[in-house]
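@channel sequence for tomorrow's demo:
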Amino acid sequence: SSLNEMFCLANIWDCIPLLDEADIFLSRREKTDLKRHALVTLFLRVLEYYNGILFLTTDRVGTLDEAFKLRVHLSLW
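structure tokens (generated this afternoon):
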């Protein structure tokens, strides 16, 4: 996937990726929206194996999936 490729390139280039407006990857998973559920699950899986720093921006803090809140080490509001 493109996400996996981005994380691989970030490791190779020794850089810090920025995902601007990452709402689509961070939103709560809903059983009625299977595509979004699959996308969030995929992002969580890829993120699980990434050992670097990642900046994510969103203006929808109230809609974050609980699984992300457990994985974030620092949040700035």
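heads up for whoever presents: The chain has a mean pLDDT of 85.
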